[in-house]
Amino acid sequence: MQVGNLAEVIREAIDETTVAFFTADVGIKAGPSVSTSADEPYVPPQADVTAIIAFNGVIEGGVHVSAPFHCAVALAAAFSGDEIETFNNTAKDAIGELANIIAGAVKSRICDDQINLTPPQVVVGRDHQIGYTKPLESTKCYFRTDNGPFFVEVFYRK
User: Fold this and answer.
1) Residue among 61, 22, 83 at smallest CA distance from 157
2) pTM value?
3) Mean pLDDT per 10-residue segment, the chain (158 residues)
4) Domain count, the chain
5) What is the CATH number of the domain that holds 65?
6) In this structure, what DSSP letter does residue 156 have?
7) What is the DSSP letter of 119?
C-alpha cells in the first residue's frame, strides 16, 4: 500500500465497517471525512465517551471512537443487542469492541502482519481530553444517527 493512499484507505475501512454494523439498528448516516497533516496541530477528540485502540508497527497511532453519552448508549445497545439505558460496563465493553473491530479493519487494509493492536481502553467523562506528545496526522469520519452524532478517528505517524 502506498503512503499517499493512507487517508483514503482509512476512510473506506471506517465507513464500510461502521455503516455495516449500524445502518439498520440506529439509522446511521455517514457525514464528512476530514484529514489533517502532521504540519497542522493535532486536536484530540472531545466527547463524553472515547474508546481508544493503539497500534504500532509500520505506522504508529491508533483509533478513537467518540460520542456524547446518549449516542454512546444507543450505539452500545445496537452493537451488543442488549437493552442499555445508562453508560454501564456492558456499554463500555461494546464501545471498546466497536473500536477494536474498526481498528482491525484499518489494520487489515494497511499491512495486517506488520501492525500490532492494543486492547481497547475507554475514557468516560464530560469534556475529557486525550493528549499526545508526537506530531500526528489524522483522518476523522463523522456520523449521524437517530440518537445523535459520533465520530471515528484514526491518528497516525508514518
Assistant:
1) 61
2) 0.80
3) 65 75 61 65 71 89 90 86 90 92 86 87 84 78 81 84
4) 1
5) 3.40.1550.10
6) E
7) P
